[in-house]
Amino acid sequence: MDRHEQVDRRGRVLDAAVELIARDGFDGVRIADVARQAGVSTALVHYHFTHRAQLLTEALTHSLSRAEQRLARSAGEVGRAGADRRLADLIDFALPFTDDDVREARLWAELESRAAGSPELAEALARLNRRTEQPVADAVAAGLAEGIFHDCVPAEVATAAQALLAGLSVRLTAHDPGLDLAGVRELAGRQLSRLVGYAGVLPFRPLSAVLPESGTGTATATATAPDAITATSTSTSTSTSTSTSTSTDSVAERGESTGAGRAAVGRRRRAVRRPAAGH
């Protein structure tokens, strides 16, 4: 087997692990299930991952890497320059907009639920937390240099932002009836603006530009297990106006599909842990 084929098969194994762990919970997934889903032998899975805990942490790292690549591509495509726009985009990165985001959130929940009893998993969780906080700290530092943010410590803002966005994401994925995506986005924007001393409203992209298009496979439910998050507001702040909202627009139906590629996203995203037998 050449190097390219090894990388391809390893990627397929990680894709399968992301999907199955998010759907069934870590305790509900066997190595044999992952191998079957990936179309490889059980021996090959054991070759790349010596134990199941390693498979969990590397699956989450793999999912996060894909989300970061999507974020970078998106920022480049729309020319989002400036620290305030970067911070707004990072808020979106952390919220559950797509199937990928929801799957990644569930992986975070699995890792967090086990980290307290495992030094190895606790170390992996701390490493991933630092990785997701760093872009926020960098954006805040850039805003201080640009003179648009004031009187704040980048690392502290990043830690507070992660805690805020993670908590809001938990409530969204748990279908809290008092919250919707657009409202959560605006709330996070207001609170982070205060933390960084930003005068005005963070320049979010229009919500319609952030949501995946219907029918693309990233935000449509499948017949297996629909998991919809509905928003009652369709637009959010821009750099020149405050946000406006209308009711009854569906943000996205999230499914635990067997074919979709998470947001995460994002991002960091956490979700309420389901019982061990099923996410």
TrEMBL record:
Alphabetical list of SUPFAM superfamilies matching this protein: Homeodomain-like, Tetracyclin repressor-like, C-terminal domain
Domain HTH tetR-type as annotated: residue spans: 7-67
UniProt keyword annotation of Protein biosynthesis present: no
DNA-binding region, residues: 30-49
Keyword Repressor in annotation: yes
Matching Pfam families: TetR_C_6 (PF13977), TetR_N (PF00440)
The protein, known as: TetR family transcriptional regulator C-terminal domain-containing protein
